[in-house]
Amino acid sequence: IDASNSHDVPHEHSWDTEWTIDAEKHWHECECGEKDSEAVHAGGTATCTAKAVCETCGSEYGELLEHAFEAKKDATHHWTECACGEATEKVENVKEAVEGVKDALKGLKE
Questions:
Q1: 8 A C-beta contact, residue 41 and residue 26
Q2: Rounded to whole angstroms, how far apart are CA atoms 28 and 19?
Q3: What is residue 7's DSSP assignment?
Q4: Cα–Cα separations (whole angstroms), residue 95 to 7, 11, 79, 91
Q5: In this structure, are residues 46 and 62 in contact, taking their beta carbons and an 8 Å threshold?
Q6: Helix (H, G, I), strand (E, B), or coil: what is residue 23?
Q7: CA 13 to CA 2: how far, in whole Å?
Q8: What are phi and psi of 101, to 5 degrees?
Q9: Which contiguous run of DSSP H or E holds residue 40?
Q10: CA–CA separation, 8 and 50 (whole Å)
Q11: pTM of the predicted protein model
Q12: Which is it for the CA torsion 23, 29, 33, 39, positive or negative?
């Protein structure tokens, strides 16, 4: 064996115990640069405030989801709100405002 030629020298891989990651995959890397157990990130659930977390390596991956707004109202206003707390501006309920004016006018007539 010619020791000057690294291809002729046997190499025993020493895999890093920590995951090496990029935006799409994770793997264990040897000091020689070879990869072992390379796989695409998977598992976890993204929300509108956090990316999914890979069940294998624990890294965040993918994109945030869009807000899932639901219609909300109280006695005087209406708006839309996401479970994360993001909300649109409250708008006065026109129907309730009109009814309030009618009641006020009715009171003046009496």
A1: yes
A2: 5
A3: G
A4: 82, 79, 15, 12
A5: yes
A6: coil
A7: 20
A8: -65, -45
A9: strand 35-40
A10: 48
A11: 0.62
A12: negative
DSSP 54-109: -TTT--EES-PPPP--EEEE-SSEEEEE-TTS-BPPPEE-HHHHHHHHHHHHHHHH
Q: What are the tokens at 82?
A: 């996401």
Instruction: Please report, in tens digits, the pLDDT of each residue of the chain (110 residues total).
Output: 444 555 667 789 999 999 999 999 999 999 999 999 999 999 999 999 999 999 999 999 999 999 999 999 998 888 999 989 899 889 888 776 666 667 766 766 66
Phi, psi of 87 (to 5 degrees): -140, 155
The two beta strands, 77-81 and 35-40, are: unpaired
CB half-sphere exposure, 38, CA atoms < 13 A: 10
